[in-house]
Structures are given as structure tokens and as C-alpha cells.
Amino acid sequence: MPKAADPYKKLNNILNMFDLKVPKSRKFTKLLKLLYTPEEAELLGHFGTPYMHMEPIGTTVRITGRNKEDVEALFENMVKKGTLFFQKGDNGERLYSLPPFIPGIYEFYTMSENDPFETKKDILKLLDDYFFETFVPEAFNSSNYPWFRVLPAEHPVKRTISIEKSVDARTRILPFEIASEYISSAQYIAVGDCACRDHAAMQDGKPRCDKPKDVCLVFESVAEYWVEKGIGRRITHEEAVNVLQRSAEAGLVHCTTNNRVFGERMSGMICNCCPCCCFILQGVLRTRGQQGIAKSNFQPVIKTEECNLCMACVDKCPVNALYHHKPHKDDGSDNFIALNESECLGCGVCVMACDNEAIQLVKVRDTVPEIDVLHMGDRHNKERRH
Asked: Which residues form a coiled coil (predicted)?
């Protein structure tokens, strides 16, 4: 009699149908075994691409031959743990999907009330180890088309618009480049605590930084999932813009998916990231993997004559792209703040930090991302290097 297929191997294979691949390792198999019981893993073995393959309970019952009440109980347990996603169909019926590792299981499990604290802490430690040893090098170095992109802080961009008189293609600011306009089409918005800062605090036993936590924005079906699970609350567009402003003032970086408008299924997110906790900026810093995130179309220009060398911009830059060029000349004329352009993400944190208004955010390129998440995923996969 042939040996039954390993349900965890099948689960790993399903997760690898998503754009951000999950490299196989003993550590990840151990992680899956902690997150999913053998019965749960077996039940999900016929599922397809995370977030794309959606099915009602009736379909799972028919395919697996399991009792409906048993399937409902197993699904509900996974939803509670944050290891199963759902959205409402046209008739209001829940449609279930396996979430990807990121963005999905990593955040949903961290944010959910599930395992006892010590158990959860151990799982998050294993998740952390796998994430930085294996997942980050893959996610930030595998494709020429990044999955994430940076949105610049809005106030510096709007200041640029008022300063620039020319309206040629180089200086025209497009809706996808401004966070408040990027989210203007969203019908359902939710805010929740940053999973990365919660994750870090659980690992350290105390907050790793003093940055605000209630600043993670999600949209449409993911937002509805958060609200129904109780890990987020619905907010208005105006409240979302206030979240973005509060985040920018705190020196956080707006990070989103590398597309122009929200898709129908995986509808969208804006993470407001700090470099000490958040996986996107940690990925950049640990791998020097700027190719893993699309820079904004903006770059800071320092007005040396107005700079008082207070070092606020150097201290606040999340990726250490600014530095103090110490003078070589007797007259001190080469004593200035310099920018390492290859490291700069164009986030505008330095502009927000400068009380002297000695830094301006200038549009330096016209990169246009793919229209939506589906096209973004296709291009990410077509341009994979491995």
C-alpha cells in the first residue's frame, strides 16, 4: 500500500504557489506542525494558491468526505488561531483560503488570541529564526520586480508640489505616489496593532521601541476579516489619513504592495514600519536588499546653506542612508550632510525630522508599478532570478 503523502509537505507546496515563496527546511516544517494539527493540515491539502483559491465549507466537505460539523469546528479553530483566512461571498457565505506565510500567517497568528503566552513566544522565536535565516534572503533577492514599495511621507510631497512650478512628466505627482490618494478608492478600511512591534515585544518581554502600534492599515476583504476576528476596527478615510500623518510624524515608513490600485482579493495594506521591529525594513537592513523593495520616486535634496548640522536627519534615517561628511578643508566648506543615494528609499523621514526645513523631497524618477496585485504577482514571478 503506498505511503500517504505528508500533509505538511503538501501544505508547504501550497504556500509556495504564492508569489513570495517559502523555502523548505526542517525548521519551517517544525513551524507548520506547531501551527497546524495533522488533521488541519490534511483538511487543507487540496487547497490552491493562498488568497486566490477560495471555497465554502460545503466544497471542503464534498472533496474530503468529512462531516460538516467537524469541518466547521476545524475551520473555526484555524480562524481563531490566525492560520486560515476567509472573506464573504456575494451571498454572504464565508469563503475560506489558506493565507500565505507573509503577508498572512506571520501577522494573523501574532495578532490573534490563541496559544498560551509561553507557547506562542516559543513559536514566534522559531518563526523569527526561520524568517531571517531563510525567508528574508529569498524574498529580498529572488526577483527583479519587488513585491513591496515605499510610499513617501505625504507632507514633504505636498510641499514639493507647491514648490515646483513645472508640470512636466518628471515633476507631476501621480495618485499612487501619495498615500491618501492611493487609499481613496477603498470601500472598507481597518486599523490594527502592528504585528511586527507586538512580535518584537513578546520576544523581548517589553516594547523594543516607543513608536505607535495602532497604525497598521488594511483594506477591503482583509479589513473585514480583521474586524470580524476582533484584531482590527473599521475606520473612515479621514481617520486613515490621520493614521498616516501620525505615523509619518513618528518617523515610520509607509510600506505597501508594489501596485497602483487595490485588487479584488488580496485588497491591500499599508504598513507603517520602524527599522528595529518591522520585517520589511529589517529585511532591507539585514540583506542590504534594496532590490527587495521598490523605492519611492522621490529623493531628499539637502540645502546645505540652510542646514545647521543638528544630525536629526542622520539619526532618524531608517536605513542609514545619510551621514555627516566631516571637513577636510581648513575653511570647513565641505562640512555637510551627505546622502548615499543607493541606500535611500525615498521615504521622507529625514524631511519630517528637519525642523529647519533644510531638506526637500524631489521627484527624481517616473517608475510606474503594475496596476494591481494580480499583475504585480505575475511580473514578480516572470522576473524571478531563482
From this structure: none
